[in-house]
Automatic annotation (TrEMBL):
It is found in: Cell membrane. CDD domains: TM_PBP1_transp_TpRbsC_like (cd06580). It is a multi-pass membrane protein. This is ABC transporter permease. It comes from Roseateles paludis. The lineage of its organism: Bacteria, Pseudomonadati, Pseudomonadota, Betaproteobacteria, Burkholderiales. Pfam families: BPD_transp_2. The chain crosses the membrane at residues 6-26, 33-54, 60-82, 89-108, 141-158, 188-207, 213-232, 239-257, 263-283. Keywords: Cell membrane, Membrane, Transmembrane, Transmembrane helix.
Amino acid sequence: MNEIALLIAATLSAGTVLAIAALGLLINERAGVVNLGAEGLMLVAAIAGFAAAVHSGSDLLGFAAGMGAGALLAALSGVLMIWLGTNQYATGLALSLFGAGFSAFVGVEYTQQRLSERSHFAVPGLADLPFVGKALFEHHPLVYGALLLALGLHLFLYRTRAGLVLRAVGESPESAHALGYPVRRIRLAAMAVGGALCGLAGAYLSIIYTPLWVEGMVAGKGWIALALTTFATWRPARVLLGAYLFGGVTMLQFHLQSEGIDIASQWLSMLPYLATIVVLVLISRNPTWIRINMPASLGKPFRPGA
């Protein structure tokens, strides 16, 4: 039972990285912008957050640095895509390549650095409960923050006027523009907020989840987060479900190895990516279902007066 509790705890922690990044990308896509640069954003944020935490000794400053780096890069790419009309897919891929190279270059001197002793978090009173205490109540506050973020985003999108405007911009920017809403500014703001959340996910990865800096440490999580938005049909609650599902698959490989199951490690390492491909293939078998749920103007540029 203790091993199952540890597996559940590891699943929640691993899923938090994917959930925060995917919720940020969901904001982008609800505004009609596809951001394929999540992998690069998370890498730059991971080294920015780790470096800030090393020099300041503060995890909070590390998170702030990661969010700032993610928001800045996302906003810059947003200017290219939204105002200059560059191709969203090509710009996102360029951002991913830039992030991988830039983080590797900047992070050379941090590969041997170590953060100060990590604090052990536990919910008073609940962490001592048998089984559920270790499984659910000994996590970093950001694990619970991801749950609150998903709830807050759901309320924002479906219970507020600002959320309605954001969805309208993603569905029909021409109509939103005709009603007087600054479509391009709204999309740029969505890009910056989404980038900040991707940055937070990257900083959490290097400061709390690992905690260290290794070149390429995001290891495809940005791409999985991007796939999660489609898997979740652009709904925050389903993003959480998908994030924990993929987090569980990721942790399962380590659990199977610890149990001595005779499977080649390469196959176990492939599990999260195979699961992503299988899910996308299954979803793609019903294009009508995707089309109904997908923001109508996703990936389409908008030029006022064009």
